[in-house]
């Protein structure tokens, strides 16, 4: 089947333009980091006294998020607040710890007397928060626990939902000079 020569020159000009445009769109839509594959996540195996660690996205990453698809917030593990950790005491049983902190995410058969509660929150905007609480048992009672400086429940809710919008109470309106109000009583 012969190819029409009038179509061929237009096709040869459009093909590189379309390919370049498609490549640019695909590279920007899938690009979440610039400058290499650096892992901004703080490893969960960081020092136990460090507490909750937050890494925020750079300005360039925030700019590139405009071109990327929707990214939902991802929460993994048990969130343990500072209030929950203050209720944990040495000498409590495993059942009491499970009631306070929830079921441990990591239980190891090689370390049966240790429960790990890692937590990881990846916001859609690139902000990463991670923490780890470790509880050590001896004779099925709490011997010690590590958690560090954890956020309070209010700080955690503010991080997820954003700053709270407190309704400001308006003062009652005062009457303007020169206006009159009439009160009718029966």
Automatic annotation (TrEMBL):
The keyword Membrane applies. Pfam families: BamE. Keywords: Cell outer membrane, Membrane, Signal. It is found in: Cell outer membrane. Part of the Bam complex. Part of the outer membrane protein assembly complex, which is involved in assembly and insertion of beta-barrel proteins into the outer membrane. This is Outer membrane protein assembly factor BamE. It comes from Massilia rubra.
């Amino acid at each position: 089947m012969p190819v029409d020569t009038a179509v061929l020159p237009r096709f040869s000009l459009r093909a590189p333009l379309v390919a370049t445009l498609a490549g640019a769109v695909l590279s920007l839509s899938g690009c979440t980091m610039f400058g290499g594959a650096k892992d901004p996540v703080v490893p969960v195996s960081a020092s136990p006294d460090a507490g909750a660690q937050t890494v925020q996205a750079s300005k360039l990453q925030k700019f590139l998020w405009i071109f990327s698809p929707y990214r939902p917030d991802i929460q993994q593990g048990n969130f343990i607040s500072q209030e929950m950790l203050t209720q944990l005491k040495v000498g409590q049983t495993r059942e009491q710890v499970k009631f306070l902190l929830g079921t441990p995410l990591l239980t190891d058969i090689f370390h049966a007397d240790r429960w790990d509660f890692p937590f990881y929150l990846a916001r859609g905007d690139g902000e990463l928060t991670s923490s780890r609480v470790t509880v050590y048992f001896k004779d099925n009672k709490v011997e010690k626990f590590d958690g560090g400086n954890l956020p309070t429940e209010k700080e955690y809710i503010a991080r997820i939902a954003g700053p709270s919008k407190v309704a400001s109470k308006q003062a009652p309106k005062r009457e303007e000079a020169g206006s009159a109000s009439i009160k009718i009583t029966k």
